[in-house]
Design goal:
Largest sheet: 2 strands, antiparallel
Radius of gyration: 25 Å
Strand content: under 5%
Shape: globular
Oligomer: single chain
Strand order of the largest sheet: 1-2
Structural class: mainly alpha
Length: about 425
């Protein structure tokens, strides 16, 4: 175990953190994070829509979700070049780069053009299903604009105003970018959206499988126990999760059945109880069962944040990170909990999520019900709490005893 800890601490973690700080990767992460409030709005609409079951006269608020969560891909296509140009030192061109990316994104959505000049888009392509296209579009525009920004038609000491210089320097790259979009969509009549979906379908199929879903939950938890943010997996996993939810919603709207279990809503329903790694039971355990003064004090401090699914104080305060006593049970739970979640949904014991719900700070078991809109999820939530408690218990007791022994030795030294 010591060799593993040394390798993760001195070799693996620094390399992963270096990747995370890469501007091309971090721009995608920042873009998704910046657009998340739109998803939260969609989640609020989901909660409000539940009231319509009680008050039939309530208006239909679904259009708010269509133009918030349903525009996620469009917004991400803007934000990626915006952040990347900023990180590359071209802040003066970040807005035009983002705007160009939106235009290219809309061209590649393969709209229908009528003889009367009317244009028709498929609404669902603007949202989560268009995430991969948004990422490709944003990165392509960023690359072209970044390369072009290194060249200029004017000398550094030119008397021409900066904004005019910026206009001229942007003309060629923007023209090239839109020409590429025109060739693909108009000239060659290629539905690039379908091609992107086809290319990424193997990844989606892997994540939507049982082992793929379990790994998509386990890997962020594993990294988290070594102090690496689980968000490092966002560019890979999050688009698949969101596309899966969008496909579920579309299937149900057309009279079909939801089949994609791997969604962020599934994780929030069960796997994030107390925060990433399902640590709520450990927080409660520390308050109720700790014999060492250190764990008792930490338990009291982290319990309230844990109830609202914020476990950074617990992970780095107990600590769980770099602590084999608590890392191992957290890894076990990161395998067991998504397995239970997948099994209960696969066998029809709990509804598969079909609507956006990312209000991760809602206490359990309310989150379990709201994410699935199935009261049976509350029963599963209680079951998971019990199982994670049992997994943490023997490791917790061993850690608690080691701290208690240390505290007694310190007391003896003080007395002497």
């Amino acid at each position: 175990m010591k060799k593993i800890m040394d390798f993760m601490t001195n070799s693996f973690a620094p390399k992963v953190n270096k990747v995370v700080k890469n501007p091309w990767i971090s721009a995608i992460q920042d873009a998704i994070m910046a657009a998340l409030p739109l998803v939260f709005v969609g989640s609020l609409v989901t909660v409000v829509s539940l009231l319509k079951n009680l008050f039939l006269s309530m208006p239909d608020f679904s259009m708010i979700s269509n133009f918030s969560f349903g525009m996620f891909g469009l917004i991400v296509s803007f934000m990626i070049p915006y952040y990347l140009m900023e990180k590359k030192g071209h802040s003066g061109q970040k807005l035009i780069a983002g705007a160009t990316s939106i235009v290219l994104f809309m061209m590649l959505l393969f709209p229908t053009l009528s003889e009367k000049g009317e244009i028709t888009f498929i609404l669902s392509r603007f949202g989560a299903t268009g995430m991969f296209l948004a990422m490709i579009t944003g990165l392509f525009v960023s690359l072209v604009m970044h390369l072009a920004a290194k060249k200029s038609f004017f000398d550094e000491d030119t008397p021409i105003p900066d904004f005019v210089v910026g206009w001229f320097n942007s003309l060629l790259p923007i023209t090239f970018i839109l020409f590429v979009g025109w060739l693909i969509t108009i000239q060659f009549r290629i539905d690039f959206f379908d091609i992107v979906i086809l290319i990424f379908s193997p990844l989606a199929n892997i994540v939507q499988s049982y082992p793929g879903f379990v790994l998509s939950v386990f890997i962020p938890v594993f990294l988290y126990t070594f102090g690496i943010s689980g968000w490092v997996m966002m560019p890979v996993i999050y688009p698949v999760y969101m596309a899966g939810l969008a496909a579920n919603a579309e299937a149900v709207a057309n009279g079909g059945h939801a089949v994609n279990i791997a969604t962020q809503e599934t994780c929030y329903a069960f796997s994030s109880m107390g925060g990433i790694g399902a640590t709520l039971s450990l927080s409660v355990m520390m308050v109720l069962l700790s014999k060492s003064a250190q764990l008792k004090a930490i338990g009291k401090a982290v319990l309230i944040p844990s109830i609202f699914n914020i476990n950074e104080p617990l992970v780095f305060g107990a600590p769980i990170a770099f602590n084999p006593y608590l890392m191992i049970p957290m890894w076990i739970n990161a395998l067991v909990v998504p397995s239970i979640a997948y099994a209960t949904m696969y066998w029809g014991f709990v509804n598969i999520p079909t609507q956006s719900f990312l209000l991760w700070y809602m206490p359990y078991p309310f989150t379990s019900y709201l994410a699935t809109q199935d009261i049976r999820a509350v029963v599963v939530c209680v079951l998971i709490f019990v199982i994670t408690w049992l997994v943490f218990l023997p490791f917790f007791k061993a850690y608690d005893q080691s701290l208690l022994k240390q505290e007694k030795e310190v007391q003896k030294e003080v007395i002497i």
